[in-house]
Specification:
Number of helices: 5
Distance between the termini: 61 Å
Strand content: 15-25%
Oligomer: single chain
Helix content: 25-40%
Length: 193
């Protein structure tokens, strides 16, 4: 096994097939994550992607999102993260604790909206109605929402969002928040609002 070893025809075919598979997968599925940059979640309608319109699992799948003006105002300066929750809900308490851990490191780079359903208020109900990923209004489990900016058509930027109902864990919060920050930094200068 020297430095100049020639690949057998079978190994060369396998290497070529693996290379082609990688190229096709990255062009179809979106960018590959790297520790130094890039995003983990591509834009699209699937359950783990950044959504422009309502996602596949939503009752209004494919329809445009009417983002609340207060959320868009906050998005001008930084990506936005919201936690819509109740005080005594066990899943809410766990989600809030994980969010606070991540905000301890990244809090200066995001606008955080802590929206308690116990307090009522128009923003809370607008947030639930707009950002429940399934199209219902959930008041007894947390809804965690991220808003950022992604490349749009004609060289401009457009609003993208992602949300989840229930406890999702620190790793999930960190991955979407890191993406939101990177995408907002990349695209905020191209957003015409």
């Amino acid at each position: 096994m020297g430095v100049g070893k020639i690949l057998s025809p079978t190994n060369a075919k396998n290497l070529a097939a693996l290379t082609l598979t990688f190229i096709l997968a990255t062009s179809i599925l979106g960018p590959v994550t790297s520790a130094e940059g890039g995003v983990e979640h591509p834009t699209g309608p699937g359950p783990d992607e950044w959504w422009i319109a309502y996602p596949d699992q939503h009752s209004k799948a494919g329809s445009a999102v009417d983002h609340p003006s207060w959320a868009l105002d906050a998005l001008k300066d930084k990506p936005v993260m919201m936690l819509i929750h109740k005080i005594n809900c066990p899943a809410c308490v766990r989600q809030e604790a994980d969010i606070k851990k991540v905000l301890g490191e990244l809090g200066d780079e995001v606008t955080y909206e802590d929206l308690l359903t116990d307090n009522g208020g128009e923003e809370i109900w607008e947030g639930l109605y707009t950002y429940d990923p399934n199209g219902g209004v959930m008041t007894y489990v947390p809804v965690t929402v991220f808003l950022t900016l992604v490349p749009g058509s004609e060289g401009n930027a457009e609003v993208a969002w992602h949300s989840a109902v229930g406890w999702s864990g620190e790793r999930w919060v960190r991955s979407y928040l890191n993406d939101a920050i990177a995408l907002h930094d990349e695209n905020s200068a191209k957003w015409d609002r």
